[in-house]
Amino acid sequence: MRASASKPIVANSRRTTSSTMAHYMKRAFPIYLMVLPGLLSIILFKYLPMFGIAISFQQYSPFRGVWGSKWVGLENFVRLFTEQQFATLLKNTLILNLIDICFYFPAPIIFALILNEVRIKWFKSSLQTIVYLPHFVSMIVVVGITNILFASEFGGINEWLASVGLPRYEGLTDPDHFRWIWLLQNIWKEVGWSAIIYLAALASIDPTLYEAAKIDGASRLKQIWHITLPSLAQVVLILFILRLGSFIDIGFEHIFLLQNPLNLVVSDVFDTYIYRVGVQQGEFSYTTAVGLFKSVVGLVLVLAANAIAKRSGREGVY
Amino acid sequence: MKAQRIIKNEKHIDVFVYCILIIWGAAIIFPLLYVLMTSFATEREYLTRGFFIWPKEWTLDAYLYLLGNNTFSQSFMNAVTITVVGTAISISVTTLMAYGLSKKWLKGRTLINFMVVFTMLFSGGLIPTYLVIKEFQLIDTFWSLWLPGAVTPFYLIVMRSFFSSIPHELEESARVDGCGEWRTFFNIMLPLSKASIATFVLFYMVGYWNTYFSALIYLNDSSMWPLQVFLRQILVLNQSMDDSAMLMEQVISYTPGARMAAIVVSALPMMIIYPFLQKHFNKGMLLGSLKG
């Protein structure tokens, strides 16, 4: 397969080396051409913005550009850390992540384990089709349907609650309910879809393990505990490391849809703050600094988790 | 073996399993069904009957209203354009790049792979990306959605490992027969990877069809807004951050039926397509994701 293998290189012979090079280029050129469009997109829209981070050390003015703007050192970062809002942002990010990791992260694992116990094939596959459905719906639709169902007037569920004599649910705009509404919408939308990867891992377990366990008289719960769960460990670990990578930029598009001036105390996170202060109020330099802080914390978290995973003798992701 | 599973104390597990799954399935289906059904109800019935899942009187008024509504049809067409062109660009760029990077002899491959993975770990952030797109004068063009979104790193990595898993002998024999790299790609590799490509076509389509935030940031001209931004206007904005009196008026002018119908129209295309591809992505996801 290798270019060098198809034409042996004679050491110290420049002519042969250069003709090997020409041979390689002739073969590799079309391949480079194939890679180029994607590479360009990544360089222009992912790496160029990384250089744009420079403006977080400036007092950037769109009229002066990156080269003409005044350098202010760490001023923007100092401002972030001393801003009153910073504690709120950090607190909300931590709490939302904690809720997410405690309840949302294990949900697809549990779901996959339960689904894995189903022996009736048509039931399993039709249920899979149903639970995957919400993944294809946009977050706007999910939030919109919630608003429709729980509208205080004519909302379907509230009408039903009222008709059976129960109190109406009026908590949609209640700041105290924001986190749980956020969590439930996430679970409703993605649990089925996220379970795919665990179901795949479960399908690859050697069935003879279960046969052997049955002969030894192990109950189904014991089989789950001793065979099923251990074989999921590696996948869970990988997904957990990936999950930590998004620790600090937590589901922005969703939070943004649920946010209102009332629940800002509990719903404001770094990204919504960047949008509000950066895009809407035009404070480019300061919010770029906020973004950089966010990205760095995210990177450190992933690398740390990965290193810990590797040190504990397991396979990491990166 | 079968007889053993019907031991008394094992049966309660089955009961538990089926109960949980049926409740969960119902919780997924109910809201979707409710919206679908009430979109066919008359406004009078919706406002007077309270809770119902089966309309007494069926009507297409809501859909006809949307059809005659310029803002809606405009945003629908925008969404179609964004999705069709965007998916075509993304799948071509991603497939080509993934195939190229699957060649182990390619010099610079490790560097490019690292560059791809690194974008998953670290990003320049919202504002610098916005400024770059503005600098390229892509604001208020659909290119602001297509070009930055051309490659989703995760899909690229999965596709790359798919191409790596195709036996090299196939390629080698094509080369011996005098096929160039392009012909090998189009005549041999593409037909082999149909299922995998179909999966990612679906993923990209869903991504473009459901995108709203990039559109909100990069498209100031409201005549360019896709369906999702329109939906946000009529479904969510009444309690959102930046509502102005003018937008509130817009929200009020849509009947409940029209809102339901708009949801149905926006959700239906993807839901219709996906069951056809379901058998493919179960396999495709497994292959890529487990290898990391």
TrEMBL record, chain A:
<keyword id="KW-0812">Transmembrane</keyword>
<feature type="transmembrane region" description="Helical">
    <location>
        <begin position="191"/>
        <end position="212"/>
    </location>
</feature>
<feature type="transmembrane region" description="Helical">
    <location>
        <begin position="94"/>
        <end position="118"/>
    </location>
</feature>
<feature type="transmembrane region" description="Helical">
    <location>
        <begin position="130"/>
        <end position="151"/>
    </location>
</feature>
<feature type="domain" description="ABC transmembrane type-1">
    <location>
        <begin position="90"/>
        <end position="305"/>
    </location>
</feature>
<feature type="transmembrane region" description="Helical">
    <location>
        <begin position="224"/>
        <end position="242"/>
    </location>
</feature>
<feature type="transmembrane region" description="Helical">
    <location>
        <begin position="31"/>
        <end position="57"/>
    </location>
</feature>
<dbReference type="InterPro" id="IPR000515">
    <property type="entry name" value="MetI-like"/>
</dbReference>
<feature type="transmembrane region" description="Helical">
    <location>
        <begin position="284"/>
        <end position="309"/>
    </location>
</feature>
<dbReference type="GO" id="GO:0055085">
    <property type="term" value="P:transmembrane transport"/>
</dbReference>
<comment type="similarity">
    <text>Belongs to the binding-protein-dependent transport system permease family.</text>
</comment>
<dbReference type="Pfam" id="PF00528">
    <property type="entry name" value="BPD_transp_1"/>
</dbReference>
<keyword id="KW-0472">Membrane</keyword>
<keyword id="KW-0813">Transport</keyword>
<dbReference type="GO" id="GO:0005886">
    <property type="term" value="C:plasma membrane"/>
</dbReference>
<protein>
    <submittedName>
        <fullName>Multiple-sugar transport system permease YteP</fullName>
    </submittedName>
</protein>
<keyword id="KW-1133">Transmembrane helix</keyword>
<dbReference type="InterPro" id="IPR035906">
    <property type="entry name" value="MetI-like_sf"/>
</dbReference>
UniProtKB/TrEMBL annotation, chain B:
<keyword id="KW-0813">Transport</keyword>
<protein>
    <submittedName>
        <fullName>Protein LplC</fullName>
    </submittedName>
</protein>
<keyword id="KW-0812">Transmembrane</keyword>
<keyword id="KW-1133">Transmembrane helix</keyword>
<feature type="transmembrane region" description="Helical">
    <location>
        <begin position="257"/>
        <end position="277"/>
    </location>
</feature>
<comment type="similarity">
    <text>Belongs to the binding-protein-dependent transport system permease family.</text>
</comment>
<feature type="transmembrane region" description="Helical">
    <location>
        <begin position="76"/>
        <end position="99"/>
    </location>
</feature>
<dbReference type="GO" id="GO:0055085">
    <property type="term" value="P:transmembrane transport"/>
</dbReference>
<dbReference type="InterPro" id="IPR000515">
    <property type="entry name" value="MetI-like"/>
</dbReference>
<dbReference type="InterPro" id="IPR035906">
    <property type="entry name" value="MetI-like_sf"/>
</dbReference>
<feature type="transmembrane region" description="Helical">
    <location>
        <begin position="111"/>
        <end position="133"/>
    </location>
</feature>
<feature type="transmembrane region" description="Helical">
    <location>
        <begin position="145"/>
        <end position="163"/>
    </location>
</feature>
<keyword id="KW-1003">Cell membrane</keyword>
<feature type="transmembrane region" description="Helical">
    <location>
        <begin position="15"/>
        <end position="37"/>
    </location>
</feature>
<feature type="transmembrane region" description="Helical">
    <location>
        <begin position="184"/>
        <end position="206"/>
    </location>
</feature>
<keyword id="KW-0472">Membrane</keyword>
<dbReference type="Pfam" id="PF00528">
    <property type="entry name" value="BPD_transp_1"/>
</dbReference>
<feature type="domain" description="ABC transmembrane type-1">
    <location>
        <begin position="76"/>
        <end position="277"/>
    </location>
</feature>
<dbReference type="GO" id="GO:0005886">
    <property type="term" value="C:plasma membrane"/>
</dbReference>
